[in-house]
Design a protein that fits this description.
Shape: globular
Strand content: 25-35%
Mean pLDDT: 93
Structural class: mainly beta
Distance between the termini: 32 Å
CATH architecture: Beta Complex
Number of helices: 1
Bound molecules: zinc ion
Number of strands: 11
Radius of gyration: 14 Å
């Protein structure tokens, strides 16, 4: 599947559609409105050069990438790793992804149980990230 930000400045491909996406309600994800899908970093094929700006926060172990032109949140990576076992991509950028065939898993990192999406299952307990 192909993905791109609004302006097309950041593009990537993954082999398969995600079976589920994560809706996290921490202070950052709540504002981004992203739905995260997870893949080994080596399986996400980014078009190069990667034209992103990076936002880091808290303990600064994750790099949140945003398109430098249209500012879409595109993905996050583990700081300092180029071959992480897991990175998060913003599933809303995946072209043709059918929400009817993707489960939504809630993650209660905001510790208030408030989500804007629907999920069939209970929320995963949160960390103290808010
Ligand atoms: Zn863009």
């Amino acid at each position: 599947m192909q993905a791109s930000c609004h302006c097309g400045g950041v593009r990537y491909e993954v082999e398969e559609a995600p079976e589920w996406v994560l809706d996290c309600n921490c202070s950052r994800c709540r504002l981004y409105g992203a739905l995260m899908a997870y893949y080994p970093q080596s399986e996400v094929k980014f078009a190069t050069p990667l034209a992103t700006s990076i936002y880091m926060w808290g303990d600064r172990d994750l790099e949140f990438h945003h398109c430098r032109t249209c500012f879409c949140f595109t993905h996050y990576t583990v700081a300092g790793l180029l071959d992480a076992p897991k990175i998060g991509v913003n599933a809303r950028l995946l072209r043709g992804l059918d929400p009817a065939h993707v489960k939504v898993q809630h993650k209660n990192n905001g510790n208030d149980g408030v989500f804007w999406t629907k999920s069939d299952g209970p929320a995963l307990p949160g960390h103290d990230l808010s």
